[in-house]
Amino acid sequence: MENNQYLKGESILKINLNLETSELRSRVMNNLAEIESSIITTDINIWQKVKESLNSLDKPWPLQQHVLMEARNQNDIVLARYLCARYRYDFYPKQQILDEYPPCVQIEPTSICNFRCVFCFQTDIKLNKPNQGHMGQMTFEMFKSIVDEIEGKVDFVTLASRGEPLLNKKLPEMLAYAKGKFLGLKINTNASHLTDEMSRVILDSGVSTVVFSADAGDKDVYESLRVNGNFDKVMSNISKFNQIRKLEFSNSKTLTRVSGVLFNPEKQDMSSHREAWENLVDQVAFVNYLPWENPYDSKPSEVDEPCSDLWRRMFIWWDGKVNPCDVDYLSWLSVGNVKVHKISELWNSEGYSSLRKSHNDNMRKSITPCKSCFVK
Ligand code: SF4
């Protein structure tokens, strides 16, 4: 669950946004010949748009800080591909362009979570009761078949969705199998099961970004939000991850981020949050709280524009079920299963098309849970 809505002024990462954007622009322009020679035919049109967007003064590409940090990590040859992929991720939803595959796939190693965060759908017994059919772990064989299909077709992969990925014992094998196959491989974790060994596995697999979920720099506040979480343990695990990265993987390009949900602004002091975490990770950020807990029975939201996720991301649950998002954590909108259909078939399936059409025809309000959802 991540909506990437960084709070302006509070996501004070360790870079200067304007400076970094202009450095990126200069780097692209100064190495144009080398960069352009690496563009594959199908990316040429997108590359023209990337250049226009980077140079546009009236409508600059609103590159987020974590994107700039990831871009900085790429060599010139890969940078071109990276920017084209980012362009797809950022602009395809606005332009409603569909390729054979989505810009990003989220793979769920497990739907099980050991936490019951107060703002999370894991508090819903319709999801978390074992006999409802929603709880389980992805097998390595299923993970492998997904990766085999999307390698070279999908640039961004995130390992996470409804559950805590580190609870899947096959995760080390999965990470080893995905190594080097995607431009951006991200993993989200609550860090409660982040052992030294697991830290080494993550770093060795070349994951581009590890997102640690934590919403406060204060133990009591953290533990009141992250129910079952132990602040000291999580802080110690993240601290050890940082040490291992420095001492044993000094050339690692893996970026780390602590990301919190701003659920109770009166209790969650942003400066103490930042102070607590900023020396342990590269980025500290908050996302806005959206009412994820039960979109099936809650009142309609004001949002009626088409949902960007329908053109941006596909979610593949542990059992192969394909869903347009994890707001719909009970899979009411599921469009099929990768055990039966190819991922490309599902992305361009009748089910997905009709959902996109309903959103475009101003019918979002007639669909549960879209009608109560805040994702734009
Ligand atoms: S519930 Fe509907 S509107 Fe919300 S993210 Fe999912 S598909 Fe988009």
Task: Note down, in words, how this protein is organized.
- The structure is a single chain.
- With 376 residues, the protein is an alpha/beta fold.
- The protein is 39% helix and 11% strand.
- The protein is built from 15 helices and nine strands.
- The chain has helices at 17-30, 32-37, 44-55, 65-72, 76-95, 125-128, 140-150, 171-178, 196-204, 219-225, 231-248, 270-277, 309-312, 343-347, 350-360, and strands spanning 104-107, 156-159, 184-189, 209-213, 255-262, 283-288, 313-316, 321-323, 336-337.
- Strands 6-5-4-3-2-1-7-8-9 form a nine-stranded mixed beta sheet.
- The longest helix has 20 residues, at 76-95.
- The chain is globular.
- The two termini are 15 Å apart.
- Mean pLDDT is 90; it is low at 1-14.
- The structure holds iron/sulfur cluster (SF4).
- The site of iron/sulfur cluster has 12 residues, from helix 13.
- Iron/sulfur cluster binds next to helix 13.
Describe the SSE topology.
Elements: H1 17-30, H2 32-37, H3 44-55, H4 65-72, H5 76-95, E1 104-107, H6 125-128, H7 140-150, E2 156-159, H8 171-178, E3 184-189, H9 196-204, E4 209-213, H10 219-225, H11 231-248, E5 255-262, H12 270-277, E6 283-288, H13 309-312, E7 313-316, E8 321-323, E9 336-337, H14 343-347, H15 350-360
Parallel strand pairs: 1-2, 1-7, 2-3, 3-4, 4-5, 5-6
Antiparallel strand pairs: 7-8, 8-9
The site of iron/sulfur cluster has 12 residues, from helix 13.
Kindly list the characteristics that best describe this protein.
single chain; 376 residues; alpha/beta; globular; disordered N terminus; binds iron/sulfur cluster
